[in-house]
User: Fold this.
Amino acid sequence: MNSENHVKVAIIGAGPSGIGLALGLAKRGVKSVLLIDRNEEIGGIPSVYKKKQGGVRTFINLIRGRVVFGEQYTQWLAGKLAKAEPAIWLKSKVIEVEPSEKRITLINPDQGKVHVTANAVVMACGARENSSIELGWLSGTRTGRTFFSKTLLELMDHHNVLPIKQPVIVGSDLNAYAAAAKLRTMGASNATILDTRSRPKSPLYSRIYFQRWKSYPKYHGKVKSARFIGNGAASAIEVNNSMTIPCDGIVLSGDLIPNSELAMLAHMNVEVHSRKPVVNSDYQLSEPGWFATGNILGGFHSAEWCYLHGKRVAKFVATYLKNNK
Amino acid sequence: MKSQIDVSGRIFYEWPDEGCRKEMRFSDPSQLAEEPYDVVIIGAGVVGSALAYKLSQYKLRLLLVDKNYDVGEGTSKGSSAIIHTGFDAAVGTLESQLVTKASIMWPELIENLKIPFQQCGAVLIAVDNEQYNQLEKIHQKAIDNGVTDVKVLTSGEVKELVPNVSPEARGGMSIPRESIIDAFSIPIAFSEVALANGTDILLGVEIVDVEDADKSIKKIVTASGKSIPTKLIVNVAGLGSSKITPKYNGKFFDLNPRRGQFIIYDEFSRSMVDKILLPIPTAQTKGVLVIPTISGNLLAGPTAEDFPLDDETAADTTIDGLELMLKGASRLMPSLKDLPRIGSFAGIRCACSQGTYQIRYNDGHPGILTVSGIRSTGVTSSPALAEYLVEGLAKECGLSLVKNPEATDSRPENRWPGWWKRPYENNGAVKNRPEYGRIICNCENISQGEIIDALSSPLQPFTLDAIKRRTWTQTGRCQGFDCMAKIAKIISEHCNIPLNKITKKGPGSEIAC
Ligand SMILES: Cc1cc2nc3c(=O)[nH]c(=O)nc-3n(C[C@H](O)[C@H](O)[C@H](O)COP(=O)(O)OP(=O)(O)OC[C@H]3O[C@@H](n4cnc5c(N)ncnc54)[C@H](O)[C@@H]3O)c2cc1C
Ligand SMILES: Cc1cc2nc3c(=O)[nH]c(=O)nc-3n(C[C@H](O)[C@H](O)[C@H](O)COP(=O)(O)OP(=O)(O)OC[C@H]3O[C@@H](n4cnc5c(N)ncnc54)[C@H](O)[C@@H]3O)c2cc1C
Assistant:
């Protein structure tokens, strides 16, 4: 392959939204689509959540009316994608984009640094979890065994390592309860869950995931401050300068931050604080011909929502291509 | 029998279980030199490792010991990473002399040691009349310290040099040679060269006692009860030094940690500031600096908060501390109040009530040197201080210095850190080693190849933090969300250590309990 490639549409990110987008384009007869992901496999976040005996299923597949493991969800996406036949480049990290030339620069082990130009580019880069400083109410030493729920899941589901036996989880959303339940199935004790809100953000998931054990994670609400304690690894967390909760590891599961850096780097409009890229009603970014779909838009959306969103945005991309031949 | 000087030193880690490469585990002093060492250096911070570097230029049997599982993991890991000119040091002191001398040595040293460095310059900024009135005095002090290239600035000139500066800026002073450096690399580079010149290195080994301090052959004793013979002992154990002095009857001094907290801003803020911004110290406070980092971030800090020795919260970051820094930094540059922050950290200075730069030859007994209280300028002064100590050891302790013609003063060309040289920019390099094209740290764009290079580098480190300091992985805006588990996996495979035994910074910090 030469170092300058041209495609009709380049999609950055092969998670649910990027795949949805590729399918939507195929349905509209758009040929020459390149789907790019830095990971070794497609699927984005769902691909991290492996199928496990006795495990916890957290991905709702409305289309088939089932709740499945992330791995199964990814397989379902892969099956759909096989019919669309886009070009797929994995282990390919996009490091830079050039808006006016609609060019992206990526690195992969086979080709090194390569440029790709396109008639339209879609950012389907997903989101990540907040670090402790971004949450604003956590302090202390950065101890060992402090994980994001995704890192924890990578260790548990991919590598079969149980990092924590007595967990404290910061945050009370779906991810927090999913992490708590997964830890429990692997033999950890029930987690203690902390949040600034008086009631958990997603109490429903506590009920759904923990029904089978009939005992639920303990919730500490209205937390004003929390301090990590531990020399080598986390050994406790001190809440509101008074209560100390012993633990052997901490999981951070906060709100999500959009992976909008590529857009920021190229001086497209991105809200400074939320890091949400600014889009119009066609999900076009501040540069014409650049689109965004899925969790990069901000908020917390399910995989299914992102998949369907990608399909929707495909319509706008196809229209753009038609109008800008 | 080995020749008197080994071609290359040995490195071992004292580690309780299979969390360490087998061949690197320290279990018995017989793994070390057969004869007593000429000098044992306790403490591998910037100062101890610089001393090992300088001494390794001579025909000497040397041992460098540290209790942590990498070099430079004490005070030296949490600094502002500024190479000072010494413009504001107390005139005429040893500290001022050494800092001024070292600031001239660094531009050449970094080429030899392959340490990322940038002479970005600093601007001292007065934001009120009280501060403005001090400028002349500070300017004179700089001249007296031999830093003659400083220049007093009008408010207009300050605004030109620092476009985003506070509208309150009344004036200032430029200090063109203040520089930023990859401070993580300093003790690593010094130690690697010392190792290449035959210095032995023991990590994870805490020295708890000294036997036969009054004899010509003394013994240092490790926490696990091993004793290692040596002719001279240098105690440069930073905040740990005052615990060792009583073991050899050294003169009393007391230390305490003085915390400095920092905020780390997102890389996007870096484009707003390319110089170090210094506040003018007032009677109440030294003030908060704004510091561009060599790796492309922006820091605000540090605080100065005193704690008793051994206080476990001394290295914590606090919510109040962060508020304080935001306030201070936004006085210099108001937009810093609202820019996205990605992390925080705290360093702990070694504050000594007997004064800074405590240097005591033949402390307690002949042949023992205590160096302590290197509080605020050790990153800068280390090479000059080490030279000074080498001369002192010869003069005061009778150390015989015979140049080793085979010794090197440089790291090889391939030891420039990957994040600085960017191997992916070179398609030939990727072709030869596709691992350079496999990005693992997505924030800093660090490849698998660079991580493996760090693992195979001379000290053969294998903790997550040691890899962090060599590659800058896990330091970006995602703070390890994407790369931490992947890096643990790479370490596990490369070093043949079970994944659950990979640690953040040594035994007790395993990723699985
Ligand atoms: C920790 C976590 C747990 C979650 N758990 C659940 C759950 O249990 N159930 C559920 O329904 N939803 C869950 N979600 C929500 C989840 O994000 C969505 O379900 C869905 O995966 C989002 O789809 P996406 O395609 O927008 O983003 P992602 O799935 O995040 O995919 C984005 C893809 O883009 C790639 N990428 C990003 N930047 C680049 C670049 N520069 N170059 C190349 N590739 C790039 C990434 O590698 C990734 O594969 C979770 C989210 C997180 C963060
Ligand atoms: C917030 C802050 C900002 C700073 N900014 C700057 C700056 O911008 N520029 C500058 O020049 N300087 C700066 N400094 C100062 C500089 O960091 C220090 O002067 C320097 O790091 C001191 O180095 P050291 O080798 O003396 O101590 P350390 O780095 O603490 O080394 C001592 C070593 O001894 C080891 N040790 C302790 N006890 C034992 C034992 N019993 N057995 C074996 N090993 C032991 C420790 O593990 C440690 O590695 C700053 C410091 C701080 C805290």
